[in-house]
Write a structure and sequence with these properties.
The chain has 264 residues and is of the alpha/beta class. The chain has one domain: 3-Layer(aba) Sandwich (Carbamate kinase), CATH 3.40.1160.10. The strands form two sheets. Strands 3-6-2-1-9-11-12-10 form an eight-stranded mixed β-sheet, sandwiched between helices. Strands 5-4-7-8 form a four-stranded mixed β-sheet. Strand 7 and strand 8 form a beta hairpin. Helix 3 packs antiparallel against helix 4 and helix 6 runs parallel beside helix 8. About 3% of the residues have low confidence.
Length: 264
């Protein structure tokens, strides 16, 4: 049975202009599209923090990656915010008949300079075997260098890729994929349909940070993560615009969709 990792971007499951504002209708639709393939494949779901965790983390300067007493307080507030969105996602999955189990990386995970270096994933492995759908998220973690930090959802997915070797990692975003420039600013920006070692430098040169509050680096950082996964583990990664109804379902079913494929 195939194994897919799906990351639901915070920009499509929250209103990024309003703090702590989920989009229940979008979450429900995306969960239904994931449900369409769970009978034929196993899925690990990850989701971003959108207007929940990112705004709280930005307020306490987590993007600087250094522990201070004030950020210690902010860590608790940021994790609480991320947990609230997590409950929205888990709730939608349960309402649609998906047996979801939560596995936040802060529970037993240890990072060094924002990279997971230790995390007992045996419970996730066993949960998959029993037919559960594990759900991970970006999180606040204890860090051996920075004291306390925040990691994007791509980090637990990267760690799990090394251990579980999924067939594909799909990032459900609010854009069609990676462009030669920011399509919201440059009308001449073109979609890059495939990225590999031959054009990765050129692709990175055209990406930048997010125009929204995003302490994890926007599209550029996502591309670095995904290309690293493809290069190191041989896993195919795909970025799609999941705001288009049916596109996530099509990608999970292996149909060709508009987006960016990232390979080694």
């Amino acid at each position: 049975m195939k194994l897919y990792f799906v990351k639901l971007g915070g920009s499509i499951i929250t209103d990024t202009k309003k703090a702590d504002t989920a989009l229940p209708g979008e979450i429900d639709r995306l969960v239904k599209e994931i449900k369409s393939c769970t009978g034929n494949a196993r899925v690990v779901v990850g989701h971003g923090s959108g207007s929940f965790g990112h705004m709280a983390a930005h307020r306490y300067g987590f993007q600087n990656g250094v522990y201070t007493k004030d950020r210690g307080k902010g860590a608790s507030i940021t994790q609480k915010a991320a947990s609230e969105l997590h409950r929205h996602v888990i709730g939608a999955m349960l309402a649609n008949g998906i047996d979801a189990l939560s596995f936040p990386p802060s529970a037993g995970g240890l990072t060094t300079k924002r990279r997971l270096v230790r995390w007992n994933i045996e419970p996730i492995r066993l949960a998959l075997k029993m037919g559960f759908t594990p759900v991970v998220r970006g999180d606040v973690t204890i860090d051996t260098v920075n004291g306390i930090t925040i990691i994007p959802t791509e980090e637990p997915l990267r760690y799990l890729t090394a251990k579980l070797k999924p067939d594909k990692v799909i990032v459900a975003s609010d854009t069609d994929g990676v462009f030669t420039a920011n399509p919201l600013i440059d009308k001449d920006a073109e979609l890059i349909r495939r990225i590999d070692r031959r054009n990765i430098k050129r692709a990175l040169a055209g990406t930048g940070g997010s125009l929204k509050v995003d302490v994890t680096g926007g599209m550029r950082n996502k591309l670095i993560y995904l290309y690293g996964i493809a290069r190191r583990y041989g896993t195919t990664c795909q970025i799609i615009n999941a705001k288009v109804p049916g596109r996530l379902k099509a990608a999970l079913q292996g149909r060709e969709v508009r987006g960016t494929i990232i390979t080694a």
